[in-house]
Design goal:
Length: 370
């Protein structure tokens, strides 16, 4: 066959161009595959980071929204909100969340941990010092306590025990689960309901001079409702007669002996501990020793955990192993009790005397309010 240079060029030259194009295409394809691989590897980490940051933003937003309802108080023992105590408890929940984060960072999740119904409950009283006591107890490594007040036995009982259990923090074997809701002490149905849950439940009541407690209660209410009547008019049924109005809740709560009779129908005195709200200020370590003994715990929370702040007039918490500044309860304390007519105060003291005396006899302890 005759050799044709034209045909030769058609076969050879195009073949060289195709090889070059294939070579370039392979290089580009390799680069694209590598880039896609890198992008996929990077993006796989993004959802976790985003999820965590979103959760943190949501949690902080929730805390801030709840925190907007926080009340200020000059008094360490002003600590519960009558209408919705959850708003007053979010500082505690922040602490609880931090503790959970610390536990998570210290190691893998302990699978033996589970949510348990509380074995001990702070049942009262409002304006007695329950917030302070709960904060002190949360320093103990063997106590796990929910921060906000569940109000299960007085407001949410129809939701059932499983709903209640889910509110509790996880705890391991040997740890004590606790909660506090100060309105339990004065609610008629609660003793029977707690007994039905567990007749072995340990009950703690923080009590305070009932006159001071009533004034503190009124002060908090007035801070939210400035147009309410005066303390004097609410305390007395008839100003001229000077009779105490026992239908007013601020007066009713301080009739401690009357409420205690109802609890003793279900629980023996050995299962109730009455803590002095005044001594939580003057001798927090001493009261905490009593509480830890009552709960069957080691005396871990001692004098080294407290620092008395003379400017604020009450003890602040500190962690003895750290160099951080003491943590004082209530960042916006400052409520000042109104000036109450001394005659009305004396009438109220006279009214409470027989109740106090009976309470001293029932508990075997003179709280020195008279």
């Amino acid at each position: 066959m005759e050799y044709s240079p034209i045909i030769h060029s058609l076969h050879v030259v195009p073949s060289s161009h195709v090889k070059n194009k294939l070579f370039v295409f392979c290089i580009m394809l390799s680069l694209w595959v590598y880039m896609i691989y890198c992008c996929v590897g990077y993006c796989s980490t993004v959802p976790n980071l985003t999820y965590g940051s979103v959760n943190r933003r949501e949690n902080h937003a929730e805390v801030d929204n709840q925190g907007s309802s926080l009340g200020a108080s000059r008094d360490l023992l002003n600590n519960e909100n009558e209408l919705d105590s959850r708003g007053d408890e979010w500082d505690e929940i922040r602490g609880e969340a931090k503790a959970l984060d610390d536990n998570a960072m210290s190691g893998s999740l302990n699978e033996s941990e589970s949510k348990k119904l509380p074995q001990a409950i702070i049942i009262g009283v409002k304006k007695g010092g329950t917030r302070a006591l709960l904060e002190f107890l949360r320093l103990h490594p063997d106590i796990r306590a929910v921060g906000a007040e569940p109000h299960f036995f007085d407001r949410n009982y129809d939701k059932g025990l499983e709903w209640y259990r889910e509110l509790m923090p996880k705890s391991s074997e040997g740890q004590l689960t606790m909660e506090k809701t100060p309105s339990y002490y004065v609610t008629k149905e609660v003793p029977a309901r707690i007994y039905a849950m567990s007749k072995d439940t340990k009950l703690i009541v923080v009590v305070r001079d009932p006159v001071t407690r009533a004034i503190s209660d009124y002060t908090q209410t007035r801070s939210k409702k400035p147009d309410i009547p005066s303390f004097e008019s609410l305390t007395l049924k008839n100003t001229s007669a000077g009779l105490i109005d026992t239908t007013w809740s601020a007066v009713q709560i301080g009739m401690y002996a009357k409420h205690l009779e109802r609890w003793l129908q279900y629980f023996p005195m050995e299962q109730l501990l009455f803590v002095s709200g005044e001594r939580l200020i003057t001798d927090p370590a001493g009261e905490m020793a009593r509480v830890q003994d009552f709960l069957g715990l080691r005396r871990v929370v001692t004098e080294k955990h407290f620092h008395f702040n003379p400017a604020k007039g009450f003890p602040c918490l500190k962690r003895p192993e750290g160099n951080s500044r003491p943590h004082c309860l209530g960042k916006t304390k400052g409520r000042t009790h109104p000036n109450i007519d001394p005659e009305v105060v004396q009438r109220l003291r006279d009214f409470y005397k027989p109740f106090n005396f009976k309470f001293y006899q029932m508990t075997g302890h003179d709280f020195g309010w008279d």
